[in-house]
Specification:
Elements lengths: L9 H4 L1 H4 L2 H25 L5 H25 L11 H23 L1
């Protein structure tokens, strides 16, 4: 989830996008989710009993962040900006994140 931080790099997404609230929301939301992911991984690897709970917390926060990012991209509308190579994130990575989140929830319920 670190790729959202690229929304703050003018050379990647273009200067106009970096000045939007969307870019800040996307970058900092992904930074929080990435931190939760690392914590959750560490808990699983250390055999901590709270790993499952923190996986739920990570999954809920990550899903809300993903919905918020998609909503922000559609309402900006981001397609009116020259976003350079960042289009790969929007067209390839975001769908993978959606599938991954669904798979995590299925695994947690089962």
């Amino acid at each position: 989830r670190h790729l959202g931080l690229l929304a703050l790099v003018p050379e990647v997404v273009g200067e106009p996008v970096t000045k939007t609230a969307f870019a800040s929301m996307l970058a900092y939301g992904d930074a929080v989710v990435a931190s939760l992911a690392l914590l959750t991984i560490w808990l699983w690897l250390s055999g901590n009993r709270q790993a499952r709970l923190w996986t739920w917390i990570f999954s809920v926060v990550a899903s809300l962040d993903l919905v918020n990012a998609i909503y922000g991209a559609l309402t900006l509308p981001v397609y009116n900006y020259g976003i350079g190579a960042f289009w790969i994130v929007l067209t390839c990575i975001v769908p993978l994140l959606i599938v991954t989140q669904i798979m995590i929830f299925i695994r947690l319920k089962g």
